[in-house]
Design a protein that fits this description.
The structure holds two protein chains of two kinds. Chain A contains eight helices and no strands. By secondary structure, chain A is an all-alpha fold. In chain A, helix 2 crosses helix 4 and helix 5 packs across helix 8. The relative contact order of chain A is 0.10. Chain B is about 65% helix and about 0% strand. Chain B is mainly α. In chain B, helix 7 runs antiparallel to helix 10. The chains are: A mainly alpha, B mainly alpha.
Chain lengths: ~180, ~240
């Protein structure tokens, strides 16, 4: 059964079909959530919340886009909500930004250079402000346009472009200052 | 000769992303080796960042996510009910119109499925409701346990077909819509029983049924057991 069929069954109350969608798409969606939240436990929370929202809104999925794209958007929105809630809890943004912990590299799947690049990039990403990281992630990894990101983050075009530029500037500085 | 504004890193980044405002910027960069080199360096950095892999999510992420969300999945139209559920309230010594209708239909069902031998006094009928559902869940539990523990070569068609017929009858019981937990369980069971009943008898479990096996093991069996226990615990002792 393809995604469209699974969604139709799931919207009709078939939990096996919905479970199949969860099993198939969770890894990709988790990566999106992780890039935005920069925290593994937060990414899992976002993922669960996104699936619950999707289940409640399955009848609104009209099939014009791919299910993965639709879920991706729900996950991004949920991750952004998560960041807003985190900010509203008055956590200090700068020095206490969570820093992604890179796992130990698996030698057969991740050569030393690649593992080192991952470690340094994650560390540098974790040091960006939430705004910078989110704007950069949405533009660079997720391919959203500046206009879409402005709408997501509720900011102006100039602020959005500047946030992305600051992110790239900081990443470049930190990656060159933290050589292998 | 007009002096051109210097091209900043910001401009180059926006050019890279296709978000620049200056229509002549691309031409200018293309014609200037220094600018081309700066853009190439920027591209190399961004490519490095892009290629840096994320920590690989563990293979159980999907199953774990499912386990976490499944208690929170509700049908959007489900009416709010107390945690005790409809069938539990039906066992209390008072009757609503829906309860009475349900009891009457359970009498019919009991007759149809051959588990009742004749007309039932009203007080016994209370127990019939719980007993019939509980028995049905017990039979389903046996089949699902066998399925969850099978290595893929067992045949389930013969056992699933009568359970499917009974399940359809129980699901059609009037009044069931006010107990979303039981209604959803019977609906989920029906989907699975339908797959099992329609499986080719001479073929081993295919990919779809292997997925069903995992579903039973990780979700359905637990729900069948807990609801059956809950119904048994609430059933009044026989006089």
């Amino acid at each position: 059964m393809d995604d469209q069929q699974l969604v139709r069954h799931a919207a009709g109350g078939d939990r096996m079909a919905f479970r199949q969608l969860v099993l198939e798409h969770s890894s990709a969606l988790y990566r999106v959530a992780l890039r935005i939240t920069a925290e593994e436990s937060a990414a899992e929370d976002v993922l669960q919340e996104a699936w619950i929202k999707a289940h409640q809104q399955l009848d609104r999925f009209d099939g014009r886009s791919r299910f993965g794209t639709w879920m991706h958007r729900i996950t991004v929105n949920t991750a952004l909500d998560h960041l807003r809630k985190r900010r509203s809890r008055a956590r200090i943004e700068s020095d206490e930004e969570p820093v992604l912990e890179a796992p130990s590299p698996t030698p057969e799947r991740c050569p030393a250079e690649q593992a080192d690049l991952m470690r340094r990039t994650l560390k540098a990403m974790g040091r960006l402000s939430e705004m910078e990281r989110t704007a950069f992630t949405l533009r660079h990894y997720e391919g959203h346009s500046i206009a879409e990101i402005c709408a997501f983050l509720d900011i102006g075009t100039s602020a959005c472009k500047q946030a992305i530029f600051r992110a790239v500037h900081k990443l470049r500085d930190q990656l060159s200052a933290d050589p292998a | 000769m007009t002096e051109q504004k210097p091209v900043s890193d910001f401009n180059l980044l926006m050019l890279y992303y296709g978000e620049h405002d200056d229509p002549e910027l691309a031409t200018r960069v293309a014609g200037d080796p220094v600018l081309r080199e700066r853009l190439a360096k920027l591209e190399a950095t961004l490519k490095d960042i892009e290629q840096a892999p994320l920590p690989e999510p563990d293979p159980d992420l999907g199953a774990r996510t499912w386990q976490k969300i499944v208690p929170q999945l509700q049908q959007p139209s489900a009416a709010p009910v107390s945690a005790a559920g409809f069938w539990h309230s039906l066992l209390r010594p008072r009757f609503s119109a829906a309860g009475l209708a349900a009891l009457l239909s359970v009498g019919v069902i009991a007759f149809v499925v051959g588990r009742s031998t004749g007309p039932t006094p009203v007080l016994d009928a209370e127990a019939v409701v719980a007993q019939q559902i509980s028995d049905h869940l017990a039979r389903a539990e046996l089949l699902f346990t066998e399925l969850a523990n099978s290595s893929g070569d067992a045949r389930f068609q013969q056992a699933a077909a009568p359970l499917l017929r009974a399940n359809r009858l129980y699901r059609a019981t009037p009044g069931l819509e006010v107990d979303p937990q039981l209604r959803q369980l019977l609906l989920d069971m029906e989907t699975l029983l339908l797959s099992l009943a329609n499986a080719a008898p001479d073929e081993p479990l295919d990919e779809g049924l292997e997925s069903a096996r995992q579903y039973v093991d990780q979700d359905l069996l637990f729900r069948v057991r807990s609801l059956r226990r809950s119904l048994s615990a609430d059933r009044p002792d026989p006089v």
